[in-house]
Write a structure and sequence with these properties.
By secondary structure, this protein is an alpha+beta fold. It has a single domain, classed as Thaumatin (Sandwich). The chain contains five helices and 14 strands. The protein has a five-stranded mixed sheet with strand order 3-1-14-9-10. The chain has a five-stranded antiparallel sheet with strand order 2-4-7-8-13, with no helix packed on it. Strands 5-6 form a two-stranded antiparallel sheet. The radius of gyration is 20 Å and the shape is globular. The N and C termini lie far apart (about 55 Å).
Length: about 260
């Protein structure tokens, strides 16, 4: 095989490799304490290379995602091994696996969730930060403004999403959880249809913001505050950017 043929094969291999990788998620911990990120892939989508790990203060870790991946990311806090069983137990966001890897299990509420659908409708990425299942710590999602090979430029079409506010400090007393370590949603706390957008309230016309969801929305306007909060809370990005997910970012997303 001549040099032109070798170059063509290398180019095809590179294209195939990039097509199999949709994005790179970089987890950053700016909290004062260690957190344990958890990853839950949606049904029918390939898993990431990890479903959970330990992330010390100031540390970061990059995790590649396969093409068309969808799922949710979060951080567990206050984790320690149980002296009797040896299982990892977390104060908030526990997935119940007993280890750093969540192995297909989701976060127990209350927990702040970062949700993604990569390469969705129209080739767009869809992402949001949700407080629908409550809140345990600030989370910021930032798309890169660059371009990965084979994708159109994403500059100007993406926005940061998230909640940088300390909702635990302003959480209504009746929603406080874990001695103030987290803040429950009204649905989780009371189970009433008007808070859960269920039954007669299972549509945007009847399920409206409540005094509780408005506490979340006023503090975190770029986060989901209740189930039908789509117009101001779901963000899209073209061009296949990478994403940085920062825990305890210390600054609000840009307007």
């Amino acid at each position: 095989m001549g040099l032109p043929g070798c170059i063509a094969v290398i180019v095809l291999l590179l294209i195939s490799w990039r097509e199999g990788e949709a994005a790179m998620f970089t987890f950053v911990n700016r909290c004062a304490d260690t957190v344990w990120p958890g990853v839950l892939s949606n049904a029918g989508t390939a898993r990431l290379g990890t479903t959970g790990f330990e992330l010390p203060p100031g540390a970061s870790r990059a995790v590649p995602a396969p093409s068309a991946w969808s799922g949710r990311l979060w951080a567990r806090t206050g984790c320690a091994q149980d002296g009797a069983t040896g299982r990892l137990v977390c104060a908030t966001g526990d997935c119940g696996s007993g280890t750093a890897e969540c192995a297909g299990a989701g976060a127990a509420p209350p927990a702040t969730l970062a949700e993604f659908t990569l390469d969705g409708t129209g080739g767009l990425d869809f992402y949001d930060v949700s407080l629908v299942d409550g809140y345990n710590l600030p989370v910021l999602v930032e798309p890169s403004s660059g371009e990965r090979p084979g994708g159109a430029s994403s500059a100007g079409s993406c926005a940061s999403a998230g909640c940088a506010a300390d909702l635990n400090a302003m959480c209504p007393a009746e929603l406080r959880s874990g001695g103030g370590a987290a803040c429950r949603s009204a649905c989780d706390a009371f189970g009433r249809p008007e808070y859960c957008c269920s039954g007669a309230y299972a549509n945007p016309g009847t399920c409206r913001p409540t005094s509780y969801s408005q506490v979340f929305k006023m503090a975190c306007p770029r986060s989901y505050s209740y189930a039908f909060d789509d117009p101001t809370s779901t963000f899209t990005c073209a061009g296949g950017p990478d994403y940085t997910v920062t825990f305890c970012p210390g600054a609000t997303p840009s307007s």
